[in-house]
Amino acid sequence: MDFIEELTWRGMIHQMMPGTDEQLKKEMTTAYLGIDPTADSLHIGHLVGVMMLKHFQRSGHKPIALVGGATGMIGDPSWKSQERKLLDEETLRHNQEAIKKQLSKFLDFDSDAPNAAEMVNNYDWMKDYSFLTFIRDIGKHITVNYMMAKDSVKKRLGGENQQGMSFTEFSYQLIQGYDFLHLYENKNCRLQLGGSDQWGNITTGTELIRRTAGGEAFALTCPLITKADGGKFGKTESGSVWLDPKRTSPYQFYQFWLNVSDADAEKYIKIFTELTKTEIEDLVAEQAENPGLRPLQKRLAKEITTMVHSAEDYEAAVEASQILFSNKAGEILRKIDEATLLAVMEGVPRCEVSRADIEAGIKLADLLTDKAPVFQSKGEMRKMVQGGGLSINKEKVTDPYLPATADMLLNDKYILVQRGKKNYHLLLVK
User: Fold this and answer.
1) Distance CA 338, CA 345 (A)
2) End-to-end CA distance of the chain
3) Spatial separation of the C-alpha atoms in residues 221 and 236, rounded to whole Å
4) DSSP per position, 311-336
5) Predicted pLDDT at 183
6) pTM, whole model, 2 decimals?
7) Which of 171, 262, 312, 332 is the least buried, fewest Cβ under 10 Å from its Cβ?
8) Residues known to be catalytic
9) How many angstroms separate the CA atoms of 321 and 300, rounded?
10) How far is Cα 142 from Cα 138, in angstroms, rounded to an integer?
11) Torsion of Cα atoms, 284 then 343 then 311 then 58, to 10°
12) H or E element: which one contains 119?
């Protein structure tokens, strides 16, 4: 597979230094991509870079994932208006391990292949590097004029935020530049990959390699992903979409991709899956013929949920999304975990009821009128039952005076009440 050709048709190249393609065609090449370790999980904003590394390894080249432990202690100022929160070493090490576990789903770290992936942490080579030695050996090679000319620095200094830029942040590009030099000298790394906002930092590295080692190194960036409507990619009302199932459940993750617009689905399926050009063209044609069936979104959600989580999690997410209208809904409700149940029932009114009442066998007519405001009166509830319109956990209720029991509890604490076709209430038993 030709890496540049692959990324080009996928729309994943923003800028590329001359000579990059020739270098990759000449020999197996090592490239690195920096990952910010400020959390113990990646989010989907990181996935473009991760997919670049994946395609790089698939093309027969060697990827290095660099966790920015040292740079994470400073905070990258590129295109940010505020200084970042700094992290301690223990937190950084924990985050590094968690990130490697997630990356292992995309990259082969464990084989004995010559292009097996590696993970490095720049804290390991920066922690004992004294300030005086650093400015003597490295600082003298890059002028302040060169650093000031970077667009990300100019934007920060001339922006509305008049707080300026600390020396700590200003030195960031020099430290990132040194990372590239260190990997060039110690790992024969010739290429740095990153998002388009990193171009200035990456080219500082190539310049440092040229000036200190007389070597040639290369840079390639991908575009920053946007939504067709101009909104921010990867953000929902509840925040970022994470790869960690504890932060974003597989169901919510699946739903995010399932609900993207047609225009975004056509773009994202090229970037976030390994599907071939022909497979994607067939899906695009299918979508044009019958957009209501949404084949692009369904396939995108399937591919990426399976890759990030598992085939089982994907199947469970599909099942969970059928709950509100499936004839097997009662069975599915009994199987899904609490996080998925709550995600499916997001926006459904909730109220608390007493566990003691359930254990005492309170009648449904009393539970759903006196204890939970599902019905205004018992008469209203009786009419609904007679018309076949009341269900508990998606199973029809035929007797309003049926006692509530512990058997009705989902995940030992919830009861799902449905009145009519579309009105749901979730009872929390405490």
Assistant:
1) 10
2) 57
3) 26
4) HHHHHHHHHHHTTTT-TTHHHHHHHS
5) 98
6) 0.85
7) 312
8) 38, 43, 46, 80, 84, 176, 197, 232, 235-236
9) 16
10) 8
11) 60
12) strand 118-121
Looking at residue 111, the DSSP 8-state letter turns out to be: S
Tokens of 12: 């994943």
Beta bridge partners of 118: 64
Task: Please give the Cα distance from 63 to 49 (Å, whole number).
Answer: 11
Distance CA 44, CA 272 (A): 10
Q: How far apart are CA 352 and CA 347, in angstroms?
A: 16
Quote the CA–CA distance of 33 and 189 in Å, as a whole number.
Answer: 11
Residue ranges of the chain whose pLDDT lies below 70: 73-86, 159-163, 327
128: which 2 tokens? 């004992």
Reported as a single tens digit per residue, the pLDDT across 95-115 is 999 999 999 999 999 999 999
Q: Among all chains, which residue has been given the structure tokens 């204890």?
A: 371
Tokens of 372: 């939970």
- Please tell me the distance from the alpha carbon of residue 228 to that of residue 298, in angstroms, as a whole number: 18
- For residue 411, what are the contacts with CB-CB under 8 A and spacing of at least 6? 337, 338, 341
CA atoms within 13 A on the CB side of 136: 5
How are the residues of the chain apportioned to helix, strand and coil, as percentages rounded to the nearest 5?
50, 15, 35
What the block records as the tokens of 271 is 């970037």
CB atoms within 10 A of CB 73: 20
Question: How many angstroms separate the CA atoms of 248 and 243, rounded?
Answer: 7
Spatial CA neighbour of 122 closest among 161, 169, 178: 178
Torsion angle, alpha carbons of 218, 197, 34, 191, to 10: -10
CA 260, 266, 271, 275: dihedral to nearest 10 degrees?
A: 110
